[in-house]
Amino acid sequence: MKRTQKDLLSTNLSRQLSDLGYVLAQSRIARKIPQSEVAVRANISRNTVSRIENGDAGVAIGQILRYLDVVRPGATLADVMMKEDNAVQAMDNLRRPRRARPLSDKELKEYDF
């Protein structure tokens, strides 16, 4: 019976790969780069890009590193997992709800601690 790479990994390692794929996908989306463009720049197939972002254990580390070099040039794998991506932070800030109007002087006094 054929076993897949995912079947051979522990749950913890599988989760780590999924987390890595999610972080890389968020970095790509924040920079508004389509999967097809990353694939061309990294010299990998679009299917491989999708597999990386889904945390597939069968993807070669070299392909992951080429993907990373396109999406976050100069970053290492350690940087990806340890440091927050500035582009993702900026995207999250844009999605955060904003006040519909400024507070009046009376309202400001009520909230003054």
Q: Low-confidence parts, pLDDT < 50 over ≥5 residues?
A: none
Structural class: mainly alpha
| End-to-end separation | 68 Å
State mean pLDDT (0 to 100 scale).
85
E-strand count: 0
Largest sheet: none
Number of domains: 1
Judging from the principal axes of the Cα atoms, what is the shape?
elongated
Proportion of residues in β-strands: under 5%
Radius of gyration: 20 Å
Helix content: 55-70%
Instruction: Output the helix-strand order.
Output: HHHHHHHH
Named CATH topology: 434 Repressor (Amino-terminal Domain)
What's the CATH H-level superfamily name?
Answer: lambda repressor-like DNA-binding domains
Oligomer: single chain
The top-level CATH class is Mainly Alpha
CATH architecture classification: Orthogonal Bundle
Can you describe what's shown?
With 113 residues, the chain is mostly helical. It has a single domain (5-96), classed as Orthogonal Bundle (434 Repressor (Amino-terminal Domain)), CATH 1.10.260. It contains eight helices and no strands. The chain has helices spanning 5-8, 11-30, 35-42, 46-53, 61-71, 77-82, 86-95, 105-110. α2 (11-30) crosses α7 (86-95), α3 (35-42) packs across α4 and α3 crosses α5 (61-71). It is elongated, with a radius of gyration of 20 Å.
What key phrases describe this protein's structure?
single chain, 113 residues, 0% strand, Helix-turn-helix transcriptional regulator, Lambda_DNA-bd_dom_sf, Cro/C1-type_HTH
